[in-house]
Amino acid sequence: MEAVKKEPVIFEGFVIMPYKYSVGSMASKFFIKIRDSKVISGAKCPKCGFVNVPPRSVCPKCFSKVEELIDLSGKGTLETFTIVHYESSVQAIKPPYAIGVIKLDGADSGMTHFIGEVDAKAIKAGMKLEPVFKDKREAHILDIEYFRPVK
Amino acid sequence: MKQREQEELIYINKTMKIPYKWRTGEVWGEFFRELKENGIIYANQCPTCGRQFCLPKSVCTRDHTVCTDRSKWIPVGPKGTVVTYFMAEQSFLLPTTGEMLKIPFAVGIILLDGATVILQHQLEETDESKIKTFMRVEAVIKPKEQRKGNIFDIVHFKTITE
Description:
The structure holds 2 protein chains of 2 kinds. In chain A, the strands form 2 sheets. A 5-stranded antiparallel sheet of chain A has the order 7-6-5-8-9, with no helix packed on it. Chain A has a 3-stranded antiparallel sheet with strand order 3-2-4, covered by helices on one side. Chain A contains 1 helix and 9 strands. By secondary structure, chain A is mainly β. By secondary structure, chain B is mainly beta. Helix content of chain B is about 10%, strand content about 35%. Chain B has 1 helix and 9 strands; from the N terminus they run E-H-E-E-E-E-E-E-E-E. In chain B, the strands form 2 sheets. Chain B has a 5-stranded antiparallel sheet, with no helix packed on it. A 3-stranded antiparallel sheet of chain B has the order 3-2-4, with helices on one face. Chains A and B meet through strand 1 and helix 1 of A and strand 1 and helix 1 of B. Strand 1 of chain A pairs antiparallel with strand 1 of chain B.
């Protein structure tokens, strides 16, 4: 009794998911400042003073309502990073790229972004970085193209 | 009551395209291999109850006999009879193409000649008044160079008179 062949037939397909989400009031102000003034801002909690970047309307430390945005210099320190080699259709840019957590001067939380203009082997935690903005900005996190080492 | 100022709100619009791979298994793999290479629609037969399944099954749903014996596969169709049908009246986003479904869209529950279990597929006819139960249809299969080995190699079933 000959059984059906064991080699599998593999379907390759893709699922397309269009979506739209609203970033909210605080994040809208944050992105508008980046687009219009090339300024990165943080949310300062009125109760405990915790500065959160990107800003949120509820303090992650004490859960108070936060409404104040303070301008930051944009410069910061690289806390940790990784080099991504794996490619996926859901990535913003094509690998390989370096991505890390940057603690901006004046902020208490880190923000994630790409690290550019530096050789992968030369990236070290503790490096001083500054943002590089795109010329054409759309009120999106990628208006900041990447962070580069301060010269 | 404090009036909220008109503020600019930002929206993120994005379309994600998520690739996937699906292993069909031995039975459907054989069905789609035959459809792709030879353009023949196959059904397989349960050795216990004798029913012919199209789309083929690896285990009979009635008596749970394993049905992977290749010698019991028989070609069916391409003609068949519409047992019943339904019309899609509301369009929705098709996840595989990213486009809205073109309505009206008719799906026929078709018994192919030689099969005992039905196959569900799109009918070519979109005018509901022209679709009747027990009408005869024939599978329209893509030419060999366009076939990919999936169910869309059967484009749809067209109405025939006989």
